[in-house]
Amino acid sequence: MSPILMKKIASILFIFCFFGNAFGQMKTDVKFTNDNGSSIHGEIQKNLSKLLTELNFADANNSYPSFQGIKVSEDFIKKILEVWDNASLSCPSRTVNEILINTTEASTFGKGYQVRNIPLIKRGRKDGTKAEDRLVVYFDYSGEVIDFNYEASKLNRFNMDWNPESPIEQWRIKVIENFLENYKMAYNRKDFKAIEEFLSPFALIITGQVVKRAPSDRNRFGQEEVIYTSRDRDEYIQHIRKIFLLNEFIDVKFSDFTVSRHNEYPLIYGVSLIQKWNSTKYSDSGHLFLIVDFEDDKNPIIHVRAWQKVDVKNKPLNFDNFKLHN
Amino acid sequence: MKKWTLAFIIFISTVCLAFSQTEKKSIIQESLVPSLSSNKFLSNITVLKNGRTVTPSSIKNKTNWNQETIALTIEEDSVQWKLIDSLGASFQISYPNEYSLHLGKDKKELEDELVEKLRKAPEIEVDSTLAVSLDSVIRKIGQTKDGILFNQYFENQLGERILSKQVVFESIVNSLMFPKEGNLPMQVDFVFHLYGKKQEVFSLHPKALLYSLPDHDSWTIWSGIEGNFLLVLFQHPNLNFHHMLSVRVIEEKLVGDFYSFIPFTKVSLTKYQEKEILFDVYIKNDKP
Lengths: 326, 288
Fold this sequence. Notes:
Largest interface: A-B, 72 and 54 residues
Number of helices of chain B: 6
Strand content of chain B: 35-45%
Distance between the termini of chain A: 76 Å
Distance between the termini of chain B: 48 Å
Number of strands of chain B: 16
Largest sheet of chain B: 6 strands, antiparallel
Helix content of chain B: 10-25%
Radius of gyration of chain B: 23 Å
Helix content of chain A: 25-40%
Order of helices and strands of chain A: HEHHEEEEEEHHEEHEEEEE
Radius of gyration of chain A: 24 Å
Shape of chain A: globular
Largest sheet of chain A: 11 strands, mixed
Number of helices of chain A: 6
Structural class of chain B: alpha+beta
Oligomer: heterodimer
């Protein structure tokens, strides 16, 4: 082989490797940790992967993204292009492992799906300044991207400004423990009316259930998966009533409590704990996160109840993830 | 620091003649036997028969226990029964130290019982002339709970226990720590917060509250004072729960709140940092 031909082959290989590598760095694949093999899960995974990869390309090329071949709504395009005038968005992760959350008609978000906690870099179009953030993407029921949201990082904006060593704060923590004991007992007594009274009328309720799938062509061993849904209070109460009817006894246990207090709203507390659910028909263990409002300390109410299966891939929700509006 | 390392052991045997037949019957017939009919109780226990693990359901509704040989051990985290049945088989039944499991009643049922006891609380004879010199208030600390609450009492320089309307919180603590000593008039108007957001109002001397608890001498009193606020925990001698009374002085009256059957939990405290906002929550029950 002549030296000239060898140089040409080497050059072609270099170009392929260079662009292949660059493409690999820009490509983001989304995988749902609760993928149940349904067509909608597959379609949203594919659509969101395409969208994030396109954003990465546009950011790298300092151009506007093109949404050809990606299922996105007109409103979404309008919103993201407005953002793009000032800052480009990109996802620094090659793989995003997250949950696909199913939201119902009556929920705050309407009927559809959402994927949250997507790593994001915002880069100023004029000065190139970068800021890290997290992206949440909303889909309608057909899997089309309809909206997105992100919040400017407010890390360290608030400092914990309470003294838990004071007897008064100890009293508050004990009141929370008592509240949790009553809340837990409401399940054990199958007292859905009491559970309803614990929840704010507009409480955000995210629940998950472990489902064991039968072996299939895709997975001959079968597997456990978690189906997540977002419900409002009435839907949740209806759901829990059915569970109560199906089970002779329910034995809920709480442990590993972590409590924090909101700085802007000092009578609102975040409580993380491990919930062990044991009943006649079903048992599981999960992270439970509650936002409890003690503005009326004789009548505390829950604004958020979020449950997630204990899983290293599934970062538990906590106070950080919720924006309170007065 | 917990006092729970001290195991509480009741041992009843044929040589222990102090127990009457009625008492022996009550501890097993009134506590264990009813529990053995509950599937929930059975789902929480482990059972050894002659040293081998057996399914809890195998002793469901079992009643033929030998009343003469029973050992009950209550430790910080667990409760253990050792029994022999009428056929001579030995059994060991263990479960977590949860008051509702051991007592066979849940918080609501126990609260309702406590309300009844408080309604019938004994009158405390008081002496309004009782006074101890207040040359100084010296705090004596027995144990400390998490560095915040204390098993404590208060003396003057002469070593006398302080009882004075001028230092009413210290006097309440002393009267709970030493219930056999004299009583100042210290009626507390308190709200008992119950399951289901119900409330009962009581006006009692703190000592009457203590006397309403079974075996009140054996409960541990933890207290903390901060300005116009007194916090008292009544810790059960062996089961994993406590009651809580808080007291303030409002317009020269002692006013308080009472919560009961609060399990001891290991609570961690974290800093709140709002950093990855994913959900909007409307806290005024009024969507925009």
